Amino acid sequence: MSWLDRFLGSFREEPAPAPRGDPERVAEVERVLAELRPAFEADGGDVQLVSVEGGWVEVRLRGACTSCHASALTLQGALEPKLREGLDWVAGVRAV
Questions:
Q1: Structure letter (DSSP) for residue 54
Q2: Does residue 6 lie in a domain region?
Q3: What is the per-residue burial (b if ≥16 Cβ within 10 Å, else e) of 51-85?
Q4: How far apart are CA 36 and CA 57, in angstroms?
Q5: HEC profile for 3-51?
Q6: Do the bridges between strand 45-53 and strand 56-63 make them parallel or antiparallel, or are there none, so unpaired?
Q7: How many CA atoms lie within 13 A of 61 on its CB side?
Q8: How many domains are contained in the chain?
Q9: pLDDT-based confidence at residue 69 (cuts at 50, 70, 90)
Q10: Measuring CA to CA, which residue among 69, 74, 73, 83 is closest to residue 46?
Q11: Which domain, by its residues, includes 49?
Q12: How far apart are the C-alpha atoms of 11 and 34, rounded to whole Å?
């Protein structure tokens, strides 16, 4: 491995572990995230599903979303309403 591969490799993010929770609910949430993902990516960020437990959807903000001052507003004002719109079991969304 060249020094350049080692250097560039230090900036690569590790693959995300599979989300925890009921597989059906995880799949439902992933479908909604897939719809919204282009909007997150347009600003240099992303949202990764961590778990779906007891009606709560836990996500991890990535890229530009980690330092964005509007990330809480985006989660509560855009992502949560979209999830509740199609999934009546969603109690809320929280970032971890």
A1: T
A2: no
A3: bbeeeebbbebeeebeebeebeebbeeebbebbee
A4: 15
A5: HHHHHHHCCCCCCCCCCEECHHHHHHHHHHHHHHHHHHHHCCEEEEEEE
A6: antiparallel
A7: 21
A8: 1
A9: confident
A10: 74
A11: 18-95
A12: 24
Cα torsion 48, 41, 72, 68 to 10°: value is: 120
CATH number of domain containing 34: 3.30.300.130
* Residue 80 placed within a domain: yes
Question: Is the predicted pLDDT of residue 15 greater than 80, yes or no?
Answer: no
Cα–Cα dist 61/16, whole Å: 12
Residue type, 19: P
Q: Is 70 part of a structural domain of the chain?
A: yes
Give percent above pLDDT 90 in the chain. Answer: 47
Strand, coil or helix: 83: helix
Q: What is the pTM of this model?
A: 0.80
More confident residue, 19 or 7: 19
Would residue 9 count as lying in a domain? no
* Confidence band of 4 (pLDDT split at 50, 70, 90): low
